[in-house]
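Sync notes, pocket subgroup
Present: LS, DG
LS reminded everyone that the earlier model was apo-only. Rerun requested with S-adenosylmethionine included. Inputs:
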Amino acid sequence: MEEFKQAQRAIWSAGDYSTLSEYIAEVGELVIDRAGVEPGMRVLDVACGTGNAAIPAARAGGLVTGLDLVPELLDGGRRKAAATGLEIDWVEGDAEELPFEEGAFDRVVSTFGHMFAPRHQRAAEEMARVCGKGGVIATCAWTPEGTVGDLFRASAAYAPPPPDFASPPILWGTEDHVRDMFGATASAFEFERHVVTIAAESTEDFLDFFIERFGPLVTARSMLGERFSELREQILAIWERANEADDGSLRLPQEYLLSVIRL
Ligand SMILES: C[S@@+](CC[C@H](N)C(=O)[O-])C[C@H]1O[C@@H](n2cnc3c(N)ncnc32)[C@H](O)[C@@H]1O
């Protein structure tokens, strides 16, 4: 297990996630709205990266903690929060073993972060434990039908097989899976599908920019050597198929599932 976590740390600290996270910043705003964060509430952002949800939660008046496996990303979040004068506690830790007391938070959120903890049931139990009765968990995960689902499937064909204990992250983008994971503790579920659209001058330009910065692809490139060009072609084809622009630019819709789990 520790080997897997070390590999995850290496993957997510590679590249420049902080810059890429700006392209999906609106998701953090939406999840904080749907979680119903109000001034004075204790809020945990699980697998916070550079704070896409933690920062709007603090802006809404929450007493916010951001937790992530990767210290370099927490540093990025610290810098962003300091630039806006917001106070957030940044904690290095694992979504499967949250270092907090039962019921320590009123709201627990995660945008595209909890989905990468390999043991989904364990992550769900931990989020529910630290949130406690009466609290709300709100999560966002890419859907299997969306363009990120396609990208994950293409990339998986070039990656070593995952260990037995790891479930596919994309499962979190289905309502059934969310119900299964939280069924024992939830009193109600609400689901919404949304799209966050990436706009760029061209598909090729954005792909090259993305390959330099997205940790999983930075890692795949160094592992695959020359074979990486095949994967690059496949991603290009996925994005060109999904592109909604007809003027040579890129408008790439990326669908995600927003889940609100009331405890
Ligand atoms: C795609 S990024 C999402 C970051 C951020 N929530 C956002 O919306 O920009 C995935 C994040 O999950 C974190 N992560 C992966 N596995 C984790 C785990 N087991 N515990 C905590 N964080 C984890 C990574 O370090 C990375 O910051």
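DG: The pocket of S-adenosylmethionine is lined by residues 8, 12, 21, 47-49, 52, 68-70, 73, 94-96, 111-113, 116-117 (CB under 6 Å).
LS: The chain is about 45% helix and 20% strand.
Action: DG to write up.
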